[in-house]
Amino acid sequence: MQRSPAGPVPASYDTGRDLAGSVESRGIDCVPDAERHGRARELFPVWAAPNVSYLSFVVGGTLVLMGLSLPETMAVIATGNLFWLLTGFIAVSGPAAGTSGSVISRAMYGVVGNKFVVALTGWLISSLYLALNWSAASTAGIGMTAQLGMAQSAALDVVVVCLIAAVTIVIAIYGHATIVRLYGAVSVFLTLVFLALSAMVLGHADWSYAPAEPLTGTEHLVVLASGLTLVASAPLSYANSPDLARYLPRHTSGRAVTLWTAFGAYLPSVLFTGVGALAATTLDMSDPQAALESVMPPWFVPTFVTAVVVNTMANNGLTAYSSGLSMQSIGVRLPRMFTVLVVGAIGTAMTLFALLVFDFLTAVNTMMELVVVVTGPCMAVYATDIVLRRNRYDGELLHDQSRTSPFWYRAGVNWAGMLATLGGAGAAALCAGSTSWTGPLAAAMGGVNLALPVGVLGAAALYAVLTRVLGTIPEAAGRR
Fold first, then answer.
1. Mean pLDDT (the chain, rounded)
2. How do the domains of the chain map onto residue ranges?
3. Helix H or strand E segment including 447
4. Fold of the CATH domain 2-8+18-474
5. 455 and 441 Cβ atoms separated by less than 8 Å
6. Do 298 and 202 touch, CB atoms closer than 8 A?
7. If you average pLDDT over residues 77-91, what whole number do you get?
8. What is the pTM of this model?
9. For residue 8, what is the enclosing H or E element?
10. Distance CA 178, CA 388 (A)
C-alpha cells in the first residue's frame, strides 16, 4: 500500500498513470516533470464541451426578456464573457506547480485558512452546481420519457437522475486523460447539434427587434449591470482551471494556457448566448425548452434533449473531478476516486431532494444570483497572487502542512488573502442588487448592481496592498 498526501493508495494503482480509458490514480499529489505531457491546445475542447450549452440559449433569452435591445444584449454577452480570460489566466499556475488549484491556494490563504475557503468555494458551491445542472438535465430527460410514452412515476424520475449522475461520476473517476480525449468528441457533437438548432432559430429571428418600452435612466443602468453580472457569473464560477492544466510540461507557455482555456469557453458561450437572444425576439423564452422545441422538426427533439444531457454531463464531469480534489485538499484522507464518489452521492441526493421533495431549486437559484459576490473576489486574489509571485510555485512546498511550512504564516492563516477576500466579498455584497438581496449602496444608487467590479477590483487591490504590508510574499518569489 502506497501513500499520497491525501491518504492511502491501493498498491494496484500506477501512481504515474494518466492514460485515456484508465482510472487516474493521482490526486492532489505533485505531477513529476518526467510525467508531464500534452500541449496547451488540448485545453480548447476541454473547455468548449461544457460551454456548448443549452444554458447559453437560456441566458441570451433572459437578457432580452430583461428589456435590453439587441445591440446592447450582444455587447453585454461579448463583454461579460471576457472574464473567461481570468479563468484562463489562473490556469497557468497548474503547470507551474504541478498540483491542483485547491492546493496552490494555500499560498493565498495559508494551510489552515485554505481549508475554509476551499470548503466553501471548491466543495459546497460546486455541490450546489452539480445539483442545479443535474436537475435541469433530469427535467429534460424525464420530459423525453413522457414523449416516448413511458408511464410517469417517482421511481422513473429517480432512475433518470441516477443514470445521468452515474455516467457523470464515471467520467470524473476516470479523470484527466479521459476527459481530455473524450471532450474533443463531445465538443464536436454538441457543436453540430447546437449549430443546427441555431440555424432553425435564426430562421425565425426578428433582426429588427426593439423593446416595446425602451429602458431609460437608472432603470437602464440597473438592467445593464445585472445582465453583465449574469453573464460573468459563469466564468467566475470556474476556479478549477489549474486542475485541468497541471499535467502540462512545466515550461508550457503561460500565454498559450490562458488563451486556449479562455477561447475554448468564450467562443461557444458568445455564439450560443447570442443565438438565445435572437430566439427571444420572436419566441417566448420564459419557457426556453418549449420555445426552442417549437422551431424543431419532431425528429430533432430527441437529439436536442440528448445534447442537453450530454452537455450537463460534460459540465458536471469537470465540477465533480475538481470537487474530489478539493475534498482531498481540505484533509479528507481518501484516494481521489472515492472522494469523487462522495461528491457524486451528495450531489445526487440534493438533486433528488430538489425534484421530488421540496422546491429546493428556488432557494438555490436565489443564492446563485449572489455567487459572484464570493467567487469574484476569490478569483481576483488568486490572479493577483500569480502576478505578484510571477507564477513561481513550488508544488512540493505547497504540500508541506507542518508549522514549519512557508505557507503556515500566522497560526496557519495568510491574513492578506483572508482579509482581501472577505473585504472584497463584503464590499460586493453592499453593492449587489438582485431579486433576493439589494445591498445598501446598491439601493442608494437605485438598484444598480456593482458587485462585479467592486468585488473583483477591490479584492485584487486590497490583496496587493496587504501582501506588502504583512510581507506574506517573499521578495525572492517575484524574481526570475
1. 88
2. 2-8+18-474
3. none
4. Hydantoin permease (1.10.4160)
5. no
6. no
7. 97
8. 0.90
9. strand 7-9
10. 34
